[in-house]
Amino acid sequence: MKPNLKKITQYRLFLPILCLVLVLLINIIKTPTFFQLSIRGGVLYGYIIDVINRASELVILAVGMTLVVAASGGTDISVGSVMAVAAAVSCFCLSGGQVSVTSYAMPWVVGLIAALVVATLCGAWNGFLVANMKIQPMVATLILFTAGRGIAQLVTKGQITYIRVDSYKYLGNFIPHVPLPTSIFVAILVVILTNMMLKKTSLGLYIQAVGINKDASRLVGIRSKRIIFFVYAFCGFLAGIAGMIASSRIYSADANNIGLNMELDAILAVALGGNDLAGGKFNITGSVIGAYTIQALTTTLYAMGVTADQVPVYKAIVVVIIVTLQSEEFKKWFAKMMQKNAERKLAKTAVGA
Amino acid sequence: MQDDIMLSMHGITMTFPGVKALEDVDFTLNKGEIHALMGENGAGKSTLIKVLTGVYQMDSGEIHLEGVDHPIQNKSPEQAQEIGISTVYQEVNLCPNLSVAENIYIGREPKKHGFIDWKKMNAMASDLLKKLSIDVDVTVPVGHYSIALQQMVAIARAIDMRCKVLILDEPTSSLDEGEVAKLFNLMKGLKEHGVGIIFVTHFLEQVYEVCDRITVLRNGRLVGTFTTEELPRYQLVAKMMGKDFDDLASIKSLRTHKPSEDTVIDAEELGHRGTIKPFDLKVRKGEVIGLAGLLGSGRSELARCIYGADKPDEGDLKVKGKEFSSSHPIDSIHSGMAYLPEDRKKEGIIGDLSVKDNIIIALQAKKGTFHLLSKKDQEKFADEYIDLLQIKTRDRDTPVKSLSGGNQQKVIIGRWLLTQPDFIILDEPTRGIDVGTKTEIQKLVLQLADKGTSVMFISSEIDEMLRTCDHMAVLRDGTKVAELNESQLDQKTIMATIAGGSK
């Protein structure tokens, strides 16, 4: 292989990016309209905008999930439910307990803060179980995974609470005079701020160290328990933000459907991003690319006319391919094949001479 | 192939990216021979063994094994095992959550009607271990036993696979003397049965005790193969290091300062239930205090108790005259302590992180989360200690796990020196490390003490302690039983104190 090409293929994010590009390439061939942009009513429309917009919640969840995976070597499967809890809390506050309102019962900010506080508490609960009680992450977060939607139902008294106020829709749609969906900015902000938090303090280093070797990290003076507690709480906080966006899209709190199955996509995004689910070294950019890949795939399938029931099947096939491409065993096998090919060519030229 | 040759390796060459790990190395092992493979860290011993057992694929060379009429090239350790090459590695490779019997028969469990025949398996395991006079309950998870016993189990497993070639990679580094003697008996027994044993160790005495021949490697090349009689000890060391050997015993004269009278550590009735009974101990500024005792006597536990790795549950500790109670190791670091743990792999290195990160991490933790060391400082510190301790690494961004054991140890030492401690605990800092590095570390200990740092030095090698310590505490069965001052420090007195009873 040429040195330049080799350098590129060895770049950590090479495979995640390649996967995303592949998905987009299919679209160029299959659905040429995929990349068309149009302006209607002062805002941008198009499949590609749709992908970036719809992926926002997933991107935000994937950021939190990456840190949880890195520090604890486990996953937080409660994020989808926590989204529903956050949505329910915010709608409950803003509606003042009514089923449907056309004006806020209290300022929007109060609803937002209440939702984020409750979501962070949910995360903190997970963190407490994992870090202090030493319960396996899957089991610890299973509690809120199942109970979360029940809690959300309790908050909304089993009803779908509607907030029919225009400003409530801003987060999940458009702010007047801004041509791009608001959630795009929120997702970008979350990624940037999280990265800054990890790079400007030693948290990034600690999270990796704790994920690689908890005992050694403790002995060099890192409070491993606190780090693990923190990442779960932070993951809950981010799930709260994602819940607010999801709730704003449908200007309601639908406890049964908000964030449904999103935890699985978030975990998948982390894996697609080339992160090791056993913990340790991590790469947030990879997870973000993974999240966009998943959403691009979903939107692509819809654009190709696949019905909603069948989407998971196609998605599964593509995921199998992507994950295989990234596996070490496949890389080894591929390298061997390349070598054999080269040898065969060499043998041929030798015979020719 | 000659009749008495069990294994021959010819012209073995193996390259890692950027490094030639082995270059044209020859090695022959006879039947019924114990053959020592010697060399410093990074000399290529482990690589040679991994080529033989199929962990690595060699670039060129040929391997012949008795009974196989074509050159062999193992693709995996399993394959090597099938043709009769078994290995017991330096770090015990057992599954701690499986029982002893399961570990011995894993992958080849006796079956009855397609299911595992547990009864038979346990009986077989227990017979096997009895034959080797290893006293363990085969149904208990391996993790419950000491590293020493785990090692014996690993050896038992290898032996049970009817191997022709048994490779012991640093098997004795975590065994105490009695256990070593048992192991040697085992090895001699196997030798009678014609098994060829490759013995990798850093303990020179042991080489001369059991080995028939010695092969020396240096920097990936073969220095030569010698019979044990024709190669006196000092020559062996000279061959390993490639230079004349400076007399190990003489390093103590490097000390120029006497320890001062100021007390740095003052423990009173300090203890941790279940590991170490309450003890009193004073450590003076600039003193090297040794902890002697058999494996499991409570040496490490005493140190852990002071550092707060295991939080003491009774007694008082004063650090530099001030009452001190640690709720987390970070408190101990703030008070000027540093601790190099015994189990490097489990508690020392943070494997996937770079050499740089491993060096700066303790200082970073000391500074706090919100005072991130600048990239420039991090690199400067890392380079400084890579240089100072002569850590052999491709660059500072190499993952620390890819370094050899001795260099990993130096990284951890560097990590602690960077925090500029007043009191540093070194628990078996030279275990599994070659002679040259050992001497370097010992010299470093003396230099530290000279500069006023107090050092607690724990080692299973009494020679090493005699060369470095000013003062020694002796432990037996989880209790501190005696303190020996400088005038009492000689091999005989220490041995007698460790053994207990009347002299």
Average pLDDT level of chain A: 90
Largest sheet of chain B: 6 strands, mixed
Q: How far is the N terminus from the C terminus of chain B?
A: 56 Å
Strand and helix order of chain A: HHEEHHHEHHEHHHHEHHHH
The number of strands of chain A is 5
Trace the largest sheet of chain A across and list its strands: 3-4-5
Structural notes for this entry:
The complex is a heterodimer of chains A (353) and B (503). Chain A has 353 residues and is mainly alpha-helical. Chain A is built from 15 helices and five strands. Chain A has a domain at 54-283. Helix content of chain A is 69%, strand content 4%. In chain A, a hairpin with a 2-residue loop joins strand 1 (38-40) and strand 2 (43-45). Chain A starts with a helix and ends with a helix. The mean pLDDT of chain A is 90. Chain B has 503 residues and is of the alpha/beta class. Chain B has two domains: 5-247, Rossmann fold; 249-256 and 286-298 and 329-499, Rossmann fold. Chain B has 17 helices and 21 strands. A six-stranded mixed β-sheet of chain B has the order 5-8-9-3-10-11, sandwiched between helices. In chain B, helix 15 (435-450) links the parallel strand 18 (423-427) and strand 19 (454-458). In chain B, helix 12 packs across helix 13. The radius of gyration of chain B is 24 Å and the shape is globular. The mean pLDDT of chain B is 86. At the A-B interface, helix 9 and helix 10 of A face helix 10, helix 11 and helix 12 of B.
